[in-house]
Amino acid sequence: MENEKFKIFNSGFDLAAGNTKSTIDAFRFWQEMNSEIPGIFEKIDGWVSHSYPNHGYLGKPWDKGKTSIRGYEWELWELKNKFKVQKELPIFITETGWPKNQLTVNSQKSKAKRVILGKYYDEATVANYFKYAFENVWLKDDRIRAVTPFLLNYPEPLFADFSWLDKNGEPYLQFETIKNIPKKSWWPEQINKFTFNKIEFPPFLLTQKKYKGIAILTNEGQSILGEKEKFFFKVINADQGIEVSNIFLEKGELLKPFERTTLTFEIKTTTQSGEFNFGWEGVGDYKIKVFQPTFLNNVKFTLWQKIIKKLRFW
To answer: Do residues 249 and 294 lie in contact, with contact meaning Cβ atoms separated by under 8 Å?
Structure first.
């Protein structure tokens, strides 16, 4: 049964693999997929790409083509022109990156260590290549929703050359380099939805008084309210004669999906009496009446007179 909350993606393909006894070219594999299930690529919601700088992870960040860090462009072109895919598929680059030389030996002339020239680039070059790739390729392409280089933390022999952290958990140069790149929001798209179950305040107030009202808020979306930025509702259309505060989550307070919280706001009256309108952006419009204290005293006196009259009648 289809559920809109779930998205279907392909598995990433090795774009450097050819047709050999142990591997198969990506395009040929797609042909077999489409032959087995015609139109299969129209059924997915996004495209996962393993756009490595091949061959041998020695490609440059400005290279183009199937076996470059722009390999996803080749994939999209093939899907559109050979398989007639009409969807504008968002791209998720779940594997990419350059390994770096790791080996060191003691120098015979000093106690210092020197790096052995291996088959990969040195640490500084790798950091610079990553920086170029992010700033000049990936971050400039609106189709790309995520780039997750291979690999964050695996300092053991099998993938030590790729790891962004060493055995002590300390970051290599590319970690700090990418961390310090100015970025736009990298938050994934989420459904932001919330409901005010109750806005509570008295129907009237006296002049020159303060009152704290309550607003009960339920998070019905996917995001954590207050996590990205200060979460508040701005006062709009408040008539002169009253002062109303914004409704907001306290600093550091988070509201997770399906959680409920009680927020407070303040209404402050001036010397003016009458009926006043106010509201909050995205919440609603409300009214409140403000009376002079003498008005209530008169109301009480009149009510007492009526009670006395009835007592005398009886």
So the answer is: no
